[in-house]
User: Fold this.
Amino acid sequence: MTQPTRSLYAKRYLLETELGAGGMGVVFRALDRLTGQTVALKQVIQRAADQIEDDLNERNDRRVALAREFQTLASLRHPHIISVLDYGFDDFGQPFFTMPLLANADDLLAAGQHQPVPERIRLIVQTLQALAYLHRRGILHRDLKPANVLVVQKNVHLLDFGLAQDRDAQSQPAGTLAYMAPELFGRGKVTEASDLYAVGIMTYELLVGRHPYDLSNPLFIFQQLEEGTVDFEPLRHLIPHQADADPPTTILPDTTRADKREVMQLDLVAESDSAPDMPAFPPVIEPPPPTTTEHPLTAIVQKMMSRNPAQRYQDAQSIIPALCEAAHVPVPEETIAIRESFLQAARLVGRDAEMKSLLHGLEKAIGWESSGILIGGESGVGKSRLMDELRIRALVNGALVVVGQAIGAGSSPYQVWREPLRRLILGARLDEVDAGVLKAVVSDIDLLLSKTVAPAAALTGETAQARLTAIVGQMIKQQDQTVVILLEDLHWAGSESLALTNSLLTIPDLPLLMVGSYRDDDLPDLPSQLPALQLMKLARLPQQDIRQLSESMLGEAGRKPQIVGLLQRETEGNVYFLVEIVRALAEEAGELSKVGTMELPDTVVAGGIQRIVQRRLSRVPAEYHPLLKLAAIAGRELDLKLLAQISNVSPLAQSIGTGVGGEGHSPLSTQWGGVGGGDVLNLDHWLTTCAYAAVLEVNAGAWRFAHDKLREGVLSGLTPDELKSLHRTIAASLETIYADVPEYSARLAYHWGQVGDPKKEALYAELAGDHALNTSAYRDALTYLEKAMALAQQHTTDFAQQARLKYRLGRAYVHLNDHEQAETLYKEALALARRYNEPETAANALRGLGVVAW
Assistant:
């Protein structure tokens, strides 16, 4: 490990120390300035050919494939697979991704040392479970070795998968020499079988206590592989009644054992032009695996390590029951939804014209000409999928992509802009005044800039909006790269957010592409409020596109007229409905591959899409529904800090998933307090289980409901009493975490209002009104302050509060140029303040009257 460097990377990460390096990249311990998490950041080394490739299109295609692979990796959720938190390309076009750090991790061999055979078998089984999941998602690892199998508290975490490698592509040898399958030395293609060979080597090494080959010289390995001389005798002595004995730690003499550092140095650069020449082995003719009766472990490991890939196990899952039976270990239950890899990765179809328009906007932004596009369509028509594809293309072209998500009830001013602004702040050069202006919108700017920021002097009306627009525009220019801003669900955004969206596009010479989405059936007149954005209306898919989408999920069977006709009839081309119908068919058939041969019903699910949504939700175990209900109440995007607070624990820096070697805590080893009844709930498992059921997903680094219809489905089944109780839990937890954070005042007012607590609702409505005034969101300020006033007059006798509220309402009306109403409110505030001895409010009201008179 190197000494701390503290260098800034991609304007977001502070690289602290190098954790390790190999043929496929370098891993650093890094601080994520945006989240405050300490993460592992991996810089992926691209093959040399990519650096000098003359065919720009080919190079770009590979980068697109790599970006899609990153997106796939970011969507993986498995107890034994590392989670990808963020990914992208740095200023030099080099790909990178980040992962959580693992606490006190040992590699596979160190973790298995001195463990009984059944425990070592469990570690191998966990590795195979992870590998089976990867293979089902179309991902080959390509570099399996003990250092890439980390163990924390007996839980395996697989990391460092191969990236963007086509299964059918011929390539140079890739991986670590000591664990490479023989066929790879003859420039054979990497397959599932070559991954399984590496697991066989590790299984032998873990059980016997040494590598099956002499690693003192690479040429010895080639010779041993060619001769097929492996001593399996030690395995035959691992008989059942000796299962609890410690494994031998040394069998080969010291002269033939390879130092750990030497094994590390046997890494080969993936697809590197500098890879050494290696002997190509002749075609392997091997007798069938032996049928020994001494111990079944021998036959299993021999089959895994067969020189002929055709004689190995062909999938990881099939090895698990054999190993478990041999070691008298129970076969673990599997809850992985295999079909999800095909359903969730269905390719984008029927949107060629729309994608062309979006890419044209990206080209304009690259040329410092701003443009905006507003994507409208009904729920489920494919707006988010189209924006996901744009995100990939923009990343590949070196753009900074930031995402904002509007929420419904309880939204604060500029809420949809908060996360985009936080990311832009990291790459901007702000003076004290600009930072002070932004503090009204981004309250944690002190943490982002690592310094105290004083609020800026307030301006009024359009002047305040113009100042904020100018600052945001300048920040975009200071990123030194094209900026793509994606704003989802703008039908829920406030007028002040829409105004900022419009005004930014009037700034000349801005390298910006702004893309928003909205439900046109919820707010059909939104385009009139966003005239600077070109409307792009998404229609449902026609039959020919339904056929293409069906084929991408079901293979050739998806083109059958009966299947296409059923999908057309049941969904009328709505993409979300279509995927759900295929999901339902697969559940009926047992697996996706059988859908094409099953007898198709006249209708898939009686009751339409609502019934389908409930079927999907029923795949989540009953014990996980209480937290799912709370998450649905809180909003589409999950606040992991809130869910952790509800579970009465501390969040692990929101690193829900697995991590890679470092200090801290292991999320998987942490038990989370239960929701009601005191049951133990593991939040990590809850997230993973809900993701397997396709109810939750990770999007742009944040957990959320996979579709808002799923969230609506959870809410639709709640009784009034349940709703009130759940809102109370959310409100109390938000109050504990965010009581002093202005952006959460509106949300707190909403939840306490749903509870029926007028005193607390009035308190937070007043604070939300203050926040709206401070952010120049004057119409929002009127809404919150009038609500607070009505509650105060109806439920309290706090006339001092009423005086304050009337003064603040007067301020809002001044900014909205309604001086007559402002004067009336200032006079009422002054009268109340004098009557109830509130000198500060009286002085403020007098100043307000002076402003109106002037």
Notes: The mean pLDDT is 81. Residues 276 and 766 are 71 Å apart (CA to CA). The domain at 104-327 is CATH 1.10.510.10 (Transferase(Phosphotransferase); domain 1). The longest helix spans residues 56-75.
